[in-house]
Write a structure and sequence with these properties.
Elements lengths: L8 E9 L4 E9 L1 H18 L50 E2 L3 E6 L2 H8 L3 H15 L3 E4 L6 E4 L6 H9 L4 E6 L2 E2 L14 H6 L1 H5 L9 E6 L18 E2 L21 H10 L16 E6 L8 E2 H13 L4 E4 L7 H12 L3 E5 L16 E7 L17 E4 L3 E5 L3 E5 L6 H14 L5 H10 L20 H11 L12 E3 L1 E6 L31 E7 L3 E2 L16 E11 L3 E9 L2 E6 L2 E6 L6 E9 L2 E11 L6 E6 L5 E3 L5 E4 L2 H5 L16 H12 L26 H14 L1
Parallel strand pairs: 9-11, 9-13, 10-11, 13-14, 14-15, 15-16
Antiparallel strand pairs: 1-2, 3-8, 4-6, 4-7, 5-6, 8-12, 17-18, 19-31, 20-21, 20-23, 22-29, 23-28, 23-31, 24-27, 24-29, 25-26, 25-28, 29-30
Helix pairs in contact: 1-3, 2-3, 7-10, 8-9, 10-12, 14-15
């Protein structure tokens, strides 16, 4: 709660007095921010004064007893017991042994001075003072400052658990986030006995992808993990040497340190083998991208494989700064905001981060939907969800992660399970795209992987597989079709808002193929009719292409069982040059064409269903056509853009224009002279214009008002010589 300067509230601030078992209450009249800072300061002073030594990573201390450190809702917390009720913490501060454990450090990101000033109702100088006071309280315990993000790694005072310390800092309102520097564990599942084939390659159609590329040795894929066995015969030829050890080092540290696999289960070696084990070498297995190089970054020295989140992320940034285009991490911890902010740093450096979704079988918070991180879930050989794979809105794509055959230290092989082993395969697919098009951007790679994925659950995006199951073949094929020049925009004369929507009479509609293969008795159309061969019944101006179920009907003579055939024509504004992904969600049939190229074909009779497609476009206006057909009044068609995170946004009306043509000015009636556009310039338009020009009140509307005084297209509320000149210019131009 914040208050304007001078306004005060009664604040009771709790300061835990370490070693005494007492709770010291400080009460007084103070501004909210000052009171919170005072409380934090008391905590700092109390705990520092009782701490004779620094607390090591992974160590736990107790106020009253050696109760294990398990904060949150999963069990007792330190200090709980008779007379001291159990503390319950938010879900993002729950210690989960073997998955996410407190380390004795937290990651802190201060708010900007502007944000602090606005939140607390103070000026910038006062805001700076508040922040300086808060930082000064823990300055001596700052382990590291992360230059690229502004984060600080702070050692927790002895005698207080990580969750309570996070909460005390959060309460000040001075920090964008405060999160434990989690001790993260590799997210591998139970191993099955070795079996003699790699089913993942059949599912991913690797052999067909390899007809395009096996990967370029100019592309570097970093495995930030427990290290990689440098002597494994399937890996020794693909490793970039020397590797790196990021434990306790910043993202700018010089290369060096032991990088050989330290874990008892060979976790990093498994991940590296799935991504890029050598092919055609007469040894064991092949990775998805056997032609790329692997940079081994070891982020832990623990045989368990557990790593500090900060060491993982520093290793990831180090890899990016050392030339890796792709960085793969297969640990718990994906929901930490520090992951999202570091993913953005990597993307700004030209790299793309991949992160395993985790193996808790839990739904990830929507707040962890990081736009610059590709989060990967796991599926089995039948494209069913791996039971323990996490799911939720943040998931971007799924990949094989059950019983996938890969490398193991000491020249061995193993069948491995877990999202740990799905993530490096998605990363390898990205490496193949970079091999095809070295200049491709991380945004375009991310967009291609998501948009080309195969639907395996419900149509469109879902919480289990995101965009679908990884399809490196489809992604590569899309990239090849898009790897030429970006399509140039059109120069428009007389642009005006809206799209021209032409509705067609479906009475004599025909399709060039049989209705279906079943020979069913339903003889109504199953596919898109050839609309260009039909008669236009009506033409209207549509502001956009965003029609929810049932919203799109014939403007004339609509009714039950009336099929709809319509084309939307005009131009769409593209704000920036790049690979653009579009989504068509429709009932029955729809097609999207941009600049004369078919981008999406969502044909056939079906319920609401989505298809996506991508095109390389320069900024500016590009011609667009959407054809739509529904066999009855059950209609729906929505055209959206898809961003790098897979989020769909219907294209707003402000992005659509059409060019003024004869139909806009001179098509004012049907063939009989009755008001209403019919998509043709004919005698009916001539007759209605003359009648309305000489009798402006005819029919109660100014049908002859088609231009301004100078003859420029567009009504101006009066009928005069400008309308006469404009009508006949466009009328004869359109005949």
């Amino acid at each position: 709660m914040s208050r304007k300067t001078g306004q005060h509230v009664r604040v009771w601030a709790l300061a835990l007095c370490a070693g005494s078992g007492l709770s010291c209450l400080h009460a007084g009249w103070a501004s909210t921010a000052d009171a919170r800072l005072h409380a934090v300061s008391k905590v700092e002073q109390a705990h520092e004064s009782t701490s004779g030594q620094q607390r090591g990573v992974g160590e736990s201390t107790s106020l009253t007893s050696p109760t294990p450190l398990v904060a949150g809702n999963s069990g007792p917390t330190r200090g709980s017991g008779p007379g001291n009720p159990q503390v319950r913490h938010p879900d993002d501060l729950v210690n989960r042994p073997g998955e996410l454990e407190f380390s004795g450090q937290v990651i802190v990101l201060p708010r900007t001075i502007e944000q602090i000033a606005a939140a607390h109702g103070v000026d910038h100088a006062q805001a700076q003072g508040l922040l300086d006071e808060a930082v000064a309280a823990f300055e001596a315990r700052v382990v590291q400052r992360v230059e690229s993000t502004g984060e600080m790694i702070v050692r927790v005072p002895a005698g207080i658990d990580d969750a309570a310390y996070c909460l005390s800092l959060r309460e000040t309102g001075l920090f964008a986030f405060v999160t434990p520097d989690w001790l993260c564990y590799p997210v591998s599942g139970v191993d099955d006995p070795l079996f003699p084939n790699q089913w993942q390659h059949r599912a991913l159609q690797s052999d067909r992808v390899w007809d395009i590329t096996q990967g370029s040795d100019d592309v570097i894929l970093a495995i930030v993990d427990t290290g990689v066995d440098a002597f494994h015969p399937d890996l020794n030829s693909v490793l970039v040497l020397p590797g790196h050890n990021s434990v306790g080092k910043s993202a700018f540290a010089p290369v060096g340190g032991a990088f050989n696999d330290v874990s008892l289960i060979g976790h990093g070696t498994r991940c590296a083998g799935l991504a890029a084990a050598s092919a055609n070498n007469g040894q064991g297995v092949s990775g998805l991208a056997p032609g790329v190089r692997v940079l081994a970054v070891r982020c832990t020295n623990q045989p368990s494989g557990a790593a500090l989140l900060s060491d993982m992320l520093n290793g990831a940034e180090w890899a990016s700064r050392s030339g890796a285009q792709i960085v793969s991490l297969s640990f718990s911890g994906v929901t930490s905001p520090s992951v999202g902010i570091r993913g953005s740093v990597l993307k700004s450096l030209g790299s793309l981060m991949f992160f395993a979704a985790g193996n808790s079988g839990a739904e990830l918070s929507a707040a962890a939907d990081w736009s610059d991180v590709v989060i990967v879930s796991a599926v089995d050989f039948s494209d069913a969800r791996y039971t323990d794979s996490n799911f939720g809105q943040p998931v971007d794509v799924a990949a094989p992660g059950v019983a996938v055959l890969t490398t193991l230290p000491q020249n061995r092989y193993v069948s491995a399970t877990g999202t740990s082993f799905a993530a490096p395969q998605a990363a390898a697919a990205a490496a193949l795209l970079w091999s095809i098009s070295p200049a491709i951007s991380p945004d375009d790679v991310q967009s291609l992987l998501v948009s080309s994925a195969i639907d395996i659950f419900e149509p469109g995006r879902d919480v289990f597989s995101g965009g679908g199951r990884l399809s490196p073949l489809r992604a590569a094929q899309q990239l090849l079709s898009l790897s030429g020049e970006y399509l140039a925009p059109s120069a428009l004369a007389f642009p005006t808002p809206g799209l021209r929507a032409t509705f067609y009479d479906l009475t004599n509609a025909q399709i060039p193929v049989a209705s279906d293969q079943s020979g069913s008795g339903d003889d109504s159309l199953k596919f898109m009719p050839v609309l260009s061969q039909l008669s236009a019944e009506s033409v209207v101006i549509s502001p956009d292409i965003n029609y929810a179920p049932g919203a799109l009907v014939f403007p004339q003579n609509g009714g039950p069982n009336r099929g709809v055939g319509v084309t939307f024509d005009g131009f769409v504004q593209i704000d920036s040059t790049g690979l653009k992904t579009f989504a068509l969600s429709n009932i029955d049939s729809a097609r999207l064409t941009i600049d004369g190229l078919l981008v999406i074909n969502n044909d056939g009779r079906h319920d609401l269903q989505e298809r996506t497609g991508s095109l390389r476009l320069q900024a500016g206006y590009h011609s667009i056509r959407v054809e739509y057909y529904s066999h009855n009044e059950n209609t729906a068609v929505v055209l959206s853009t898809v961003n790098q995170a897979g989020v769909r946004t219907p294209i707003p009306a402000s992005k659509f224009v059409r060019v003024i043509t004869s139909l806009d000015v001179a098509d004012i009636a049907d063939w009989s002279g009755e008001p209403g556009r019919n998509g043709h310039i004919d005698e009916g338009d001539y007759n209605l214009f003359f009648t309305s020009f000489f009798f402006p009140n005819y029919g109660g509307q100014l049908y002859a008002d088609v231009a301004d005084d100078a003859g420029n297209p567009g009504p101006n509320g009066v009928v005069n010589e400008g309308d006469y000149n404009a009508f006949f210019f466009w009328y004869f131009a359109g005949l």
